[in-house]
Amino acid sequence: MNNKSIMIVGVGGQGTLLTSRILGDVALNTGLDVKVSEVHGMSQRGGSVVTYVKMGEKVYSPVIEKNEADIILCFEKLEALRWIDYAKKDGKIIINNQRIDPMPVIIGKAKYPEDIIEKIKADYANVIDVPALDIAKECGNIKAVNVVMIGVMARHSEIPKEVWIDAIEKMVKPQFVEINVKAFIAGYDYAAGL
Fold this sequence. Notes:
Layout: E1 4-11, H1 16-29, E2 33-36, E3 40-41, E4 48-56, E5 69-74, H2 77-83, E6 87-96, H3 103-106, H4 116-123, E7 127-130, H5 132-139, H6 145-155, H7 161-171, H8 177-192
Parallel strand pairs: 1-5, 5-6, 6-7
Antiparallel strand pairs: 1-4, 2-4, 3-4
């Protein structure tokens, strides 16, 4: 497998750190070298959060520069727009179509941009938009949006489905394993129809 650079972007509380841990575990369990960054941003205050994951034969640093990400996993569409410059032109951009207003929008100091996903699709050929919040609700827990998104990404990877499920079972608290596996499978199945 060639080295893969994956960015996970979202808003504090959406599970970006758990997602990066699951990806790290998947990489290790498939014999790959992996480096995972720390969370950057105001995760405790609902602000922008980004983590980097690099996996492959030999990885020296988790840092991803502009135009370098093979995959950007976006848990909120404005965050997709904020970090889009990091995607390779042929990179895969997987966007949860959920809108979460940042504080400047909430207090009336800024407007939430229109047609974000359409603008990104105009510049990038490999964009998947996902109704991840709706899928998570159907599974029984809106907090499982991140795992729905992992399922979509996993469908497009070379790594077997079972390796992903094993990582979720290890990384998620026992009381939440069942709902998260269900959310992963729902995302995986959703991606099959794309």
